[in-house]
Amino acid sequence: PLSPRLFFEAVEQAPSAISITDARATILYANRAFEILTGFSRAEVIGQNEAILSNQATPDNVYQHLWRTIQRKQTWTGTLVNRTKQGGDYLAELIIAPVLDRNNDIKYFLGMHRDVTKLH
Ligand code: FAD
Asked: Do the interacting molecules here have an ipTM over 0.90?
């Protein structure tokens, strides 16, 4: 039968790095694939902004477009250069989608990404 546990385990074990943030991108949850890909344990990232993954070289206008899109309650898809805890850069194909509450206000953001370095 469908249960919260089933949903949790499916997200937890999904083969894509998944994180859930508040409306300002503060990380509330990260799954196992996120830990493996980024090199950060969840204890290290929970409470931090997703900017912890930034390689510090992405042009500001890329982030501005990202934020404009998701604040309009739309899904942003794009590729960012991310940096792991160990300092290695990788090409991240991201999907960032708003999670709305009953009043249609942004409650959380859902982030999903995978490493596409080898595909380019
Ligand atoms: P900042 O100087 O803080 O911001 C750069 C620009 O982004 C600013 O000019 C501003 O216009 C805009 N901006 C930043 N925060 C906000 C805000 N709260 N509201 C409106 N506009 C804002 N970034 C990555 O580099 N890699 C990721 O994998 C990644 N995953 C994300 C996943 C989710 C679910 C979300 C919501 C965001 C993610 N981000 C990711 C974006 C991240 O939160 C930062 O905005 C980004 O990394 C820039 O951070 P900064 O401190 O370098 O730059």
From this structure: yes
